[in-house]
Description:
Blueprint (H helix, E strand, L loop, with lengths): L1 H9 L13 H11 L8 E9 L7 H15 L4 E5 L16 E8 L5 H9 L6 E6 L11 H18 L2 H25 L9 H29 L4 H28 L7 H32 L6 H17 L12 H11 L1 H16 L7 E2 L11 H13 L7 E6 L3 H13 L6 E4 L3 E4 L3 E8 L6 H19 L5 E5 L1 H35 L3 H26 L15 E2 H33 L2 H29 L6 H33 L8 H6 L13 H4 L14
Parallel strand pairs: 5-11
Antiparallel strand pairs: 1-3, 1-4, 2-3, 6-9, 6-10, 7-9, 8-9
Helix pairs in contact: 1-6, 3-4, 5-6, 5-7, 5-19, 6-7, 6-9, 7-8, 7-9, 7-19, 8-9, 8-18, 11-12, 11-19, 12-17, 12-20, 14-15, 16-17, 16-18, 17-18, 17-20, 18-19, 18-20, 19-20
Amino acid sequence: MALGAILGVVGSNFTDSSRLPASDSSTAYSLLAKGGSDAASAKTGTIVWHTETGSAVSAATRSTIAPMLQKVSTLGGVTSVISPFTSDGAAQVSADDHTAYATVVFTSTSHADQAKDIAKHADTGALKVQVGGTAFTNPRPSEISEIVGVLAALLVLLLVFRSVWAALLPILTGVAGVAVSSLAVMLLSHVMTLPTVAPSMGALIGLGVGIDYALFIVNRQRKALRAGADLTDAITTAMNTSGRAVLFAGGTVMIALLGMLILNVGFLSGMAVAAALTVLLTVAAAVTLLPALLAKIGPRVLRRSERRATNTAFAARGEDGGAGRQTPADRGGWARWARLVERRPVATGTAAVAVLVILAAPALALRLGAADASSDPTGTNTRGYHDTMASAFGDGFQAQLLLVAETPNGQAQQAWSRLIGELPHVKGVASVGSPVAVTANTLSMVEVVPTTTAQDKATTDLVHTLRSDVITHTEMGTDLRVHVGGTTASSIDFANALTSKLPLFLVIIAGLGFLLLTLAFRSLLVPAVGAIGNLLTIAVALGATVALFQWGWGPSLFGIGGPAPVEYVVAILIVGVMFGLSMDYHVFLVSRMHEEWVHTQRNRRAVTVGVGETGQVVATAASIMACVFAAFGFAGVRTISEFGVGLAIAVLVDAFLLRMTVIPALMHLCGARNWAIPAWLDRILPHMSVEGGAETRQEQEIGTQPVPEPEPVDA
């Protein structure tokens, strides 16, 4: 309530500014800002009109369009409207004279929606009016995706638990954590640069991990109750086992997210902090709110038949001392699967790895960038605007490059003039504007229009050619310095910078993950296998994203249009979030194995029990998280769709193929070496326990008889 009250006073302060420090495009913008040009800070929108008959600048058309442009020019935040009816905008008319456009320059886009409405009212049917450009493009994710994700998660929980309260508790916990974190993220927007999609991204991550974390705790408490523990002991056991694992798993997710800070990109760092804050608050809800709810609900977390069976079993165990009792790992579908992997580790592991490699293979073709309106769904306003402008002015009409030149002397000015003369003959250049002096004789700029769209690889190639060849050759022997800026160039610089830092990012988070798992399980092999498996899962996530969104196998399904490069923000977020989430499942699976290993010192028994007992809950958790993530695929915003769908596929693959198949197969083959650690390292490492002390295993130990080792593994 306090956060809501504060937010009601100060509001939020999200911004989609994404300028990259220390790049050629950012240097261009900095020079323009120092020279007093507003090209560095202003946002522009375009109002285009088209008529099939007559001229787009005829007197009849002007009588309709000119008053509309006048109204737009009086809105707050609008600094100028460059109209084709004036000499400054004379070039803004198509060659066939049927299409023309006006450029609206904003210092603040707070009235952009109002300007859009005014423009649309000038549409008469015979005269088609459309709007586009960065100022008028503000995609808003559909809120229905969050509701669908929660309802799907609730359905899965009801099918698994067959108890309304057991199904509702994880949902209530996850939603509460996300609600608080959303308010916190809105307030954080006043402190850090956060894009408008940050709350949606936070809700996506928070709902997934929040519901999952609560699920693990509820599941463990239900086990304790069925084993005969009273309510207080059951909650204590759940918190001292799964609660510990939740804290540990949440910590790994936060570390992976905060690893993005090394990229040193303002808005991306803000998103990393916002996402980590969301995870922190959902973990807090799981270890504070959830135990209170469990105490309030009491035994009703079990369905009635379970409560009756528990009472009967407890009485029977008192009579026979628990002889002959089966552990949860000895029965059920996951127990059978665990024994199959134990008997055939090579066959099952190899088959699963083959599938993982096939799914990950498209990641080799990953191309980072930013989608433009040419990939929007047919029939949408943005796609209609793009098609109208492209047919009249060429595909590159909104991929303009801004060349900013430092010309400190006459020699540099002559070289700059020579370069402007050569630009029209460069492959991929459609047109070159007239040079504009920013400061007298020392700083100038010119607009270059490519022949291809902003997202086209040919446009990226053109930017590289200009920088590495054409401009460099002209600068040689002179004091001329030319920088390529503009929105398109900035996107390319972002993609290049993040791609170059991706290996370092992977090494850092993999190293930190390895260290944490080594501390938790006092082993070198288990953390190494986990870290390598996490990297494979990340490759699957990126591969699925490439196949569906870059190659175009899936965008139409999610209502976001056609193929386009993978958004650079999405790729980095997938790496950070997926590494943390895959660590979660590794922690929950291996902590149960380690618990059994400490108790029995039998590796095959430990691995089989770990898979048999955690299989259902890990599968349920993965299915819930996949439902929540996949629901965001229909949010209507490409960035969120790519992120949600890529994570949904990767989570399912990670849980079912990697954690439940490849990892146990490898651990069976490695034997007791899984739990080996050099004596010197064991002495210096601090002791910590993910799954709690021996006293917390009471519900597994009641009535459990020693189990002989299975027959030797048949590979």
